[in-house]
Amino acid sequence: MNFVGTLLLINLLIIYVKCQFSISSPISFVLDEFSNIATYTKCKFVECCINEYVISDIDKLDDMFKKELYGQTIAQSVVINALRGHLTSSNPPKALSMSFHGPPGTGKTYISQMIAKFLFKNGDGSKFYHFFNGRNDFPLENKVNDYKEELYKIIIKSLQNCERSMFIFDEVDKMPEGVLNVLVPFLDYHTKIKLWRLDNNFINTTKAIYIFLSNTGSIGITQRLLTLWKEGKQRTMTKLQDFENIISVRAFNEKGGFYHSDTIDSNLIDHYVPFLPLEEVHVRECLKKAFVNRGVYPTSEMIKEALSYVTFGPPPDNIYAIAGCKRLEQKVASIIYANKKQTEL
Ligand SMILES: Nc1ncnc2c1ncn2[C@@H]1O[C@H](COP(=O)(O)OP(=O)(O)OP(=O)(O)O)[C@@H](O)[C@H]1O
Ligand SMILES: [Mg+2]
Questions:
Q1: Which of 114, 133, 326 to mutate to test the pocket of ligand 1 (most atoms within 8 A of CB)?
Q2: Per the database record, which ranges form the AAA+ ATPase domain (predicted)?
Q3: pLDDT in tens, 227-284
Q4: In the chain, what is the straight-line distance between the N-terminal and C-terminal CA atoms, in Å?
């Protein structure tokens, strides 16, 4: 048995011996102290649900957004305010649930990974962080009930280990309808879920965080942004209210995981977060970063060449990058390679 296993066994033994004495006896007090020391030592070696591991560093996350997230000021402020409000409350009324919507390559998955990095010391490797992909993890329409059961068990187990667990559901629009209905009791106000039907032990569901990612509503978001642009409203002046209603209506009516779902029906999503299509200026930033990450400071020719691979739409204005900042790395890598070859000749 390894060291951590031994500490667990010691803890169990202490609990057993404690049960043989009254709570106020000196022996019970000493055993309590031993138990605390064993737990403290264990948490030096394995991830525990304590502040050292569940860090919630929102200020640093905000700084990171300001530096590394381009063109998503609405998403940035909605996410930061929502997380701050939720994490600073010792007794939130319900779990925090946010739904991210927008075209491909605009930063939905990217932002979720950043959040994990600043909420958990172990980042997306934390055992309290769960990432599900609608297409890969729930591929079959006829298995909805099995998926629901599995999901229920995973969530219960994680919340038992840490109330501050976080669950990300990517590509919700590729998920069979109905799977997400299993989340309703976890997202509801002041729900207390029993571990066993006849048990009196409850699980607190209200401190967890759920994030849903999808492309539903993208066309509506792009059209609305275009209209606002034509009316002379700058991108940075747009507000959540300009988009929120479009997203919630479309998410509910477009095919996919949220389609006619109880989760939406019961108003259990706290924030619908729009990710706006990226413009050339943002793609340039992404390109610069991709070059610098590979140790190359790009010339304007290199950026121009990389940009020539990016498609813009919708016609006739063609001001938004159709795939955002997606798949730029590969282009950048080949441009660097081609330049290196040329200088070697
Ligand atoms: N707004 C942004 N600011 C900075 N980098 C970005 C932004 N959007 C995308 N990127 C870069 O592009 C990559 C791909 O973006 P991401 O995977 O987050 O897209 P997505 O919105 O999840 O798209 P999809 O809907 O196709 O899943 C990221 O890893 C990141 O490097
Ligand atoms: Mg994604």
A1: 326
A2: 94-242
A3: 999 999 999 999 999 998 888 777 666 665 566 566 666 578 899 999 999 999 999 9
A4: 61
